[in-house]
Write a structure and sequence with these properties.
Layout: E1 2-10, H1 15-19, H2 33-52, E2 57-60, H3 64-77, E3 81-83, H4 100-107, H5 126-143, E4 148-153, H6 155-166, E5 183-190, E6 196-205
Parallel strand pairs: 1-4, 2-3, 2-4
Antiparallel strand pairs: 1-5, 5-6
Length: 218
């Protein structure tokens, strides 16, 4: 029997993604036209699903591209959007607004390469971000036992959820591709013996993006 279900949608393509810059809270300018189209396709798919198997709640983080994604989903599904700081992405500090190539060169790689080292002055560490995001998700899931939750999320939040529910430790070398407007699903199963288990049913499902709004290769 499935009890709790978590469905994550990464935000659509944002202008910072196109420009190759760090889109922190100070400099995020939101979704591109393509990004709006991508999320609209995801919302149409999920609205049909919502009519037969309703979502209990819709959550997102405070960054502009997330709020825009959440608004599209909320309007399509008729759900209010709960915005929580715990669902925001990593803190980028002085890297906010700078080209990622410049940030990665200065830090000796992407944030996950040196997971216990800040990638800029005032930034998170990768493991520090995962720990904080995982703690928030753990508490939110506990408060919604038996519910069906929808998240308009950063790719990093999807990775944090996978890290939490797969029980991955710090410093894991493997990672996950999370495409714009893709869907990932977790289900909490309870069997007849009273045994509980989280199962990753779907990761990075972007079938709804086939066509002109499909995401280009990064």
């Amino acid at each position: 029997m499935i009890t709790t279900e978590l469905v994550f949608i990464r935000h659509g393509e944002a202008q910072c993604n196109v420009d190759g810059v760090v889109g922190g809270p100070a400099t995020c300018t939101g979704l591109t036209t393509r990004g709006y189209a991508q999320v609209t396709l995801a919302a149409t798919r999920l609205a049909a699903e919502h009519r037969s198997t309703p979502f209990t709640a819709l959550y997102t983080g405070p960054r502009l591209r997330l709020r825009q994604t959440g608004e599209i989903l909320g309007q399509a599904l008729g759900l209010p959007v709960g915005t929580h700081p715990g669902l925001d992405g990593p803190v980028h500090g002085a890297a906010d607004g700078k080209p990622w190539t410049e940030v990665k060169t200065a830090a000796g790689g992407a944030p996950h390469v040196h997971p216990d080292q800040p990638w800029a002055e005032g930034s998170d560490t990768w493991n520090g971000y995962l720990q904080r995001a995982s703690a928030f998700l753990r508490n939110l899931i506990a408060a919604h036992e038996g519910d069906r939750l929808l998240f308009a999320a950063h790719g990093e939040t999807v990775i944090a959820a996978h890290t939490l529910l797969l029980g991955l430790g710090p410093g894991t070398d493997a990672g996950f591709v999370v495409s714009h407007a893709s869907i990932s699903r977790w289900q909490h199963h309870l069997n007849r013996l009273g045994q509980h288990r989280w199962l990753l049913k779907v990761h990075n499902d972007a079938a709804h993006l086939a066509g002109p709004a499909a995401e280009p290769t990064p």
